[in-house]
Amino acid sequence: MSVLLNENPALILIDIQKGFDDLAYWGGERNNPEAEMNASKLLELWRANELPLFHINHCSSNPNSLLAKGKAGNDFKEMVLPLEGERVICKNVNSAFIGTDLKQQLESLKITQVVLVGLTTDHCVSTTARMAANYGFKTFIVYDATATFNKKGFNGEEFSAQLIHDTALASLSGEFATLIMTSELFI
């Protein structure tokens, strides 16, 4: 993937926040326990190569949410804390594009490729990927730097976090995004 790094891609770190550490609140089970560490490795790679990056912070409008502004769960996890001068974009819906100036910032930097990492695969990562592709950005999702939680189905059946992760990414692959692994960006 060294060619990718030559294209000035933006790394978009989506909602890597402390509130997602409460497994019971989000569904009890989570996949990809190394997702944040892999995102951190990519963040360091982007910083070392002086590539553009964006930290997305979910600021829930629900005051009871762990991700509500002012709550400890709204804070970024230590391993991906933004440095002074790095772009931080606050959102309150699933897409990092809705109600923000992310698209305008990407366009002003003449960015055509985005690499998405973060939480959760089937919500904010998926929604952001779909919009990025629809806006014309070549979109990559890092399989092992994204994660989600188990979900209950329509009839109360349980679906594992890994199944939700895999099916969410399968529905994006090819049409909205190219799926890659963290290791592919270090070649």
- H/E element sequence: HEHHEEHEHEEEHE
**What is the typical, i.e. mean, pLDDT?**
95
Based on CA atoms alone, the radius of gyration comes out at 15 Å
Strand content: 15-25%
**Topology, number of strands:** 8
Unreliable spans? none
- Distance between the ends: 6 Å
User: What is the 3D form?
Assistant: globular
Which secondary-structure class do the elements indicate? alpha/beta
Helix content: 25-40%
The largest sheet has its strands arranged as 3-2-1-4-5-8
Largest sheet: 6 strands, parallel
Overview of this protein structure:
- It is a single chain.
- This protein is α/β, with parallel strands linked by helices and 187 residues long.
- The chain contains six helices and eight strands, in the order αβααββαβαβββαβ.
- The strands form two sheets. Strands 3-2-1-4-5-8 form a six-stranded parallel β-sheet, with helices on both faces. Strands 6-7 form a two-stranded antiparallel sheet.
- Helix 5 links the parallel strand 4 and strand 5.
- Helix 5 packs parallel to helix 6 (161-172).
- The mean pLDDT is 95.
Secondary structure layout:
Layout (H helix, E strand, L loop, with lengths): L1 H4 L4 E5 L8 H4 L8 H14 L4 E6 L28 E5 L10 H7 L4 E7 L1 H14 L3 E10 L3 E2 L5 E2 L1 H12 L5 E3 L7
Parallel strand pairs: 1-2, 1-4, 2-3, 4-5, 5-8
Antiparallel strand pairs: 6-7
What are the salient characteristics of this protein?
187 residues; alpha/beta; six-stranded parallel β-sheet; 6 helices; 8 strands; globular
